[in-house]
Amino acid sequence: MKQKPLILVIANDNPPVYVEMQSLWREWINKNKEHCYCYFVKMEETSDSDIAIRIAEEENTIYIRGTECFVPGILEKTMIAVEYCLQCFPDVSSIIRTNLSSVILLDKLDYLSFDETVRGYTGQHFDYVLNRYIPFISGAFIYACREIWKRILTHYWKDIQENPIDGIWTRLPDDVCIGEYMSLAGILIVHKENRYWVKHQLTEDEVGEIKMADGICHIRCESYQHLHTVESMRCFL
pTM score, two decimals? Predict the structure, then answer.
């Protein structure tokens, strides 16, 4: 069985520009559906207590019961969707957690080949001060194999069970929490220069050079108040 990567795109429909970004992502999904799985992950307010998570294939969306929020909502969407997909897709070799303002160059992912038991990869590595440093992966592109995600999930659920009111999951950004769970699992975070962050409107030649650049597989298109985000995304589709 040929293994595929799975891409989870954290999404919601507000502000309206996010809906336009989802349309661009759907174009990307249609071009690459033979080579990967890709789903948006959204919260859904529902009175049906029997449905905690569902996939709407026609929308390329995983819906999780709850209300959209930054903390702890994005972490919750990520962890529940990852756990669900690990169970549903046995041919998934690795999972990328990304966001709407990114574009993934799928044919360049081989640059991020890694030891499947001890490492995660990032295009940018940060430290967060919380009486100490927590190394973590930029939430725009978190890439790890299924075994690493399983180990992260173990520490996520342990945090919720042991600290239901004041765990780090209740107060820190999602990528910082994931970094802490990786540290607790003994997973080494390896820095790799795999990202290009678009800082200005690009010429056709610049786009071509970025696409051909060694190791670049993640294009971060977010601009101030998303003034040029959509235009930048179109350049790489």
Answer: 0.93
